[in-house]
């Protein structure tokens, strides 16, 4: 669905702008006080499982895509976040993929 908006400069010129893409975010940052990705994912899954039908309805909407994206910082050379099987099942039930952006601080 397009979002129509106007501002003072576009109103003066008679131009209406149409945004064809939008972005919504649900973030655990500053809510979950942990550096463990699993705890952040538990928080997110808990929120989304309560709204499973709404999530599925949105996913059926043309042009809508949903995914989980995590940032992970490491001060070492190896390792990384690990997911519990129940978290993987929950994400699969919600039809959500997960990606991790890894940053290595040296």
Care to describe what's here?
The protein is of the alpha+beta class and 106 residues long. The protein is 34% helix and 21% strand. Strands 1-2 form a two-stranded antiparallel sheet. Strands 3-4 form a two-stranded parallel sheet. Mean pLDDT is 84; it is low at 1-7.
Q: Which keywords apply here?
A:
4 strands; 4 helices; single chain; 106 residues; alpha+beta; two-stranded parallel ribbon
Output the radius of gyration.
Answer: 19 Å
Q: Please outline the major beta sheet.
A: 2 strands, antiparallel
Quick one: how many beta strands? 4
Structural class: alpha+beta
Unreliable spans: 1-7
Measured by DSSP, the beta-strand proportion falls in 15-25%
Residue-averaged pLDDT: 84
Order of helices and strands: EHEHHEHE
Question: Widest sheet: strand order?
Answer: 1-2
Write the SSE topology:
Blueprint: E1 3-5, H1 8-13, E2 17-19, H2 37-49, H3 52-59, E3 67-74, H4 85-93, E4 97-104
Parallel strand pairs: 3-4
Antiparallel strand pairs: 1-2
Produce a short descriptive summary.
The chain has helices at residues 8-13, 37-49, 52-59, 85-93, and strands at 3-5, 17-19, 67-74, 97-104. With 106 residues, it is of the alpha+beta class. It is globular, with a radius of gyration of 19 Å.
């Amino acid at each position: 669905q397009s979002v129509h908006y106007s501002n003072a400069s576009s109103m003066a010129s008679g131009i209406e702008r149409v945004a064809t893409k939008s972005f919504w975010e649900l973030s655990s940052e500053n809510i979950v006080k942990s550096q463990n990705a699993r705890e952040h994912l538990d928080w997110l899954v808990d929120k989304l499982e309560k709204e499973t039908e709404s999530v599925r309805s949105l996913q059926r909407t043309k042009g809508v895509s949903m995914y989980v994206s995590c940032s992970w910082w490491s001060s070492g050379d190896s390792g990384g976040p690990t997911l519990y099987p129940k978290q993987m099942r929950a994400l699969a039930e919600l039809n959500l993929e997960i990606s991790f952006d890894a940053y290595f601080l040296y």
